[in-house]
Design a protein that fits this description.
Layout: E1 3-8, H1 15-25, E2 30-36, H2 47-57, E3 64-69, H3 73-79, E4 84-88, H4 92-108, E5 113-117, H5 128-136, H6 147-158
Parallel strand pairs: 1-2, 1-4, 2-3, 4-5
The protein binds 4'-phosphopantetheine.
4'-phosphopantetheine binds near residues 73 and 105.
């Protein structure tokens, strides 16, 4: 059984994340979408909200588990029996950070392979940071977040 972890902050989930999830699920039998629980980082949405939104989005996909984790990603990946870590890369600007993280994770757990996937061009400029900024100022989130969650994310950000 091929299992991959797709880890991230998902604060909130964007169309870029959704694009990567749909590509990753074709490659493996089981995909674990894992929200990092990082108490030292301030976030717009609580971990519970982020997990709930991803579960809502993925409710018709039995091969995908949504959960949260804390501690080292490689430890969590091993606990899930995963062989792969999936990360999305949008532009060269993502590369240095992703490259460092992939090589460090490889040092920590050589048996885990990091797989980089690219979203569609139109999703490659989408980031959670921009969604938060635009949403907080009441801007249009069409083409930035998945349609089933758009109203929920927009309302929540407007109130923040
Ligand atoms: O969506 P993000 O914020 O870019 O995701 C970053 C994430 C969650 C993948 C990364 O911060 C992570 O794996 N954190 C867990 C702690 C860890 O394993 N750190 C060592 C990484 S080399």
């Amino acid at each position: 059984m091929r299992t991959a972890i797709y880890p991230g902050s998902f604060d909130p989930v964007t169309l870029g994340h959704w694009d990567i999830i749909q590509r990753a699920e074709k490659l493996v039998d089981h995909l674990v979408v894992a929200v990092l629980h990082n108490p030292s980082k301030t976030s717009a949405f609580s971990v519970e909200e982020r997990v709930a939104m991803l579960r809502e989005l993925l409710k018709d996909r039995p091969g995908i588990l949504v959960t949260s984790f804390n501690g080292l990603l490689v430890d969590f990946a091993k606990s899930q029996g995963a062989q792969f870590i999936v990360r999305g890369v949008r532009a060269f600007s993502d590369f240095e950070y992703e490259f460092q993280m992939a090589l460090m994770n490889r040092k920590l757990a050589p048996e885990l392979e990091t797989v980089f996937l690219m979203p569609k061009e139109k999703n490659s400029v989408v980031s959670s940071r921009l969604v938060r900024e635009i949403g907080t100022m009441g801007g249009n989130l069409t083409e930035l977040v998945p349609e089933p969650l758009r109203a929920r994310i927009a309302e929540r950000l407007r109130k923040s």
